[in-house]
Amino acid sequence: MIPTKEEVIRELKKRSCEKIKLAIVDIDGVLRGKVVSLDKFISILDGGMGFCAVVFGWDMEDKSYDNVSVTGWHTGYPDFNATIDLSTQRNIPWEKNLPFFLADFHQDKEQGGLVCPRSLLRKITQKSLDAGYKPLFAQEFEWFNFEVTPDEFAQANGSLPKAMTPGMFGYSHLRASLKSDFFHDLFDLCGRFDIPLEGLHTETGPGVYEAAIQYSEILLAADRATLFKTSVKEIAYKHGLMATFMAKWTEALPGNGGHVHQSIWDPSLEKNLFYDSNDNWSMSKLMRQYIAGQLYCLPHMLPLFAPTINSYKRLVEGAWAPTTLTWARDNRTTALRVLSGGKKSTRLETRVIGSDVNPYLAMAACLAAGLYGIEHQLDLDKPATVGNGYKDYSNGSIPTSLQEATAAMKNSEVAHSLFGSDFVRHFCKTREWECREFASKVTDWERKRYFEII
C-alpha cells in the first residue's frame, strides 16, 4: 500500500529527520540524486522538483552528447519536472538509516517522461495491466569484487587489480567465508534496504558473487535491481573493496549475467497465467505466445539488453551467455530458458541480459516483447533447442556488436511501436555516441599488438 503524503511527513517528523536522499535513474541505469532538507522535501511532494535535464544529456562520464535533441546546449539544459514516488521509501542502513526515495518523470509528458527509463517501464506495465495481465519479475546478478579503492584504481591507470578471493570456486562455502563480513553485510543490509535476496553465493571465478533478488511486481523488481547494483558498490566501499558489474572485465573469465525471470499473473495474483497443468512442460498458450514475442523482437531491441561496447564481449560461445536466437527447457546455452514446474514457479528466464544493463529498460523490453507476442497471437513455431544452443542457428544469431544492434533498433518499426519513437530515437543516439567514443580511443590491445612490430 502506498503511504499518503501526510503519513510520510508525520513519520519523518516523528523520527526527527533533517535530510532526505533522493535519486532518479539515467539512461545507463546510474543513480543521480541529491540530499535535501526535510522542509525542501515537503515542499516538492505536490508539485514535483526541478531536476537538471543534463541527466539525460550526458553519458556515464558526464560528457555531453552532441547528437540528442531532447536536451543539450541547444536547449540550455533546463529543469525537467521529477515526481517523488512515495512507494519507494526506504532507509539506508549503512548511512545511519537516512531516508531515501526514488523519483521519475512520468508526469512530465513533454520532456523527461519521453526518455526516462523508469517512466517507460511504468507505461509498458500499465499496458499489461490494462490487458488484464499482472507481471511478476525478478533479476539476478553476477559481479566481481576486487581489493582496491576507487582512488587506487584511478591511480593504477587501468591495470588489473587484485581479485578479492583466488581461483575458480563456484558455490563455495570456503570462499564465501574468506570475506564473511562483506558476504553477510551484503545479505543483511540489502534486506534491511528492502532488497530481499533469495540467495547469495560465489560463482566460478576469482572474487565473483551471484545474488538472486526475490520476485515481485515488475516496477518494484526493477527498483530493487537498480538499487542493488549501487548498494553492492557502496557496501563494498565500506570493506575497502570495489565491485564491478561490467559484462566482461577480462577475456580469460566468464562474463557477468543479469538474467531476468518473468511470469504473468491474473490481476488477483491467484493464478500464474504461464502455467498449464495439461501441458507436458506446464506451459500455457499465453506463455508460448510470450516467448514467441521475445524471440521475434529480440533483434529489434538488443541494445536494451546489451547496452555497452563491452556487453558483446560477454555474448560469445562457451561462456555461459547465449549467441543464438533460441529457447529451450532448462538449458543454459539458449537465449530463453523455460523453467517449468509448479503453479507458482513456471516462468521464463531471459539469459541474454548482462549485469551492465539498466534494469528498467531490460524489464520494459522483456515485457513489451512478450505482450507483442500475445497481442499478435504469435505461434512458438521454433522448436525448442535440444543440447548445445551455441550450435543451433536455425532461427539466426544475436548481433555481435553494439553498432550493429543499435542500427537494427534505430531502423526497426517494431522497436518504435513497442517503446515510442521519441524514446527509440534518443536511446539509439546515446548508443551511437557510445560507439563513437570507443572508436576514437586507442586501446591497450592496439598498443601491445602494433607499437613495436607493425
How much beta, percentage-wise? 15-25%
In sequence order, what are the helices and strands, one letter per element? HEEHEEEHEHHHEEEHEEHHEEEHHHHH
How can the largest sheet be summarized? Answer: 9 strands, mixed
Count of helix runs: 14
Mean pLDDT across all amino acids: 96
Helix-and-strand structural type: alpha+beta
- Using only CA atoms, what is the Rg? 22 Å
Please give a structural write-up:
The chain is of the alpha+beta class. The chain has helices at residues 5-14, 38-43, 117-130, 150-155, 173-178, 180-192, 218-238, 285-301, 311-314, 359-375, 402-410, 413-419, 421-439, 444-450; strands spanning 19-25, 31-37, 49-52, 79-92, 98-104, 134-146, 197-202, 208-213, 216-217, 242-244, 260-265, 327-329, 336-339, 347-350. Strands 6, 7, 8, 9, 10, 11, 12, 13 and 14 form a nine-stranded mixed β-sheet that branches. The model has no long low-confidence stretch (mean pLDDT 96).
Notable traits:
single chain, 454 residues, alpha+beta, nine-stranded mixed sheet, five-stranded mixed sheet, 14 helices, 34% helix, globular
How is the secondary structure organized here?
Layout: H1 5-14, E1 19-25, E2 31-37, H2 38-43, E3 49-52, E4 79-92, E5 98-104, H3 117-130, E6 134-146, H4 150-155, H5 173-178, H6 180-192, E7 197-202, E8 208-213, E9 216-217, H7 218-238, E10 242-244, E11 260-265, H8 285-301, H9 311-314, E12 327-329, E13 336-339, E14 347-350, H10 359-375, H11 402-410, H12 413-419, H13 421-439, H14 444-450
Parallel strand pairs: 1-5, 12-13
Antiparallel strand pairs: 1-2, 3-4, 4-5, 6-8, 6-9, 6-10, 6-11, 7-8, 11-14, 13-14
Helix pairs in contact: 3-10, 6-7, 8-10, 11-13, 12-13
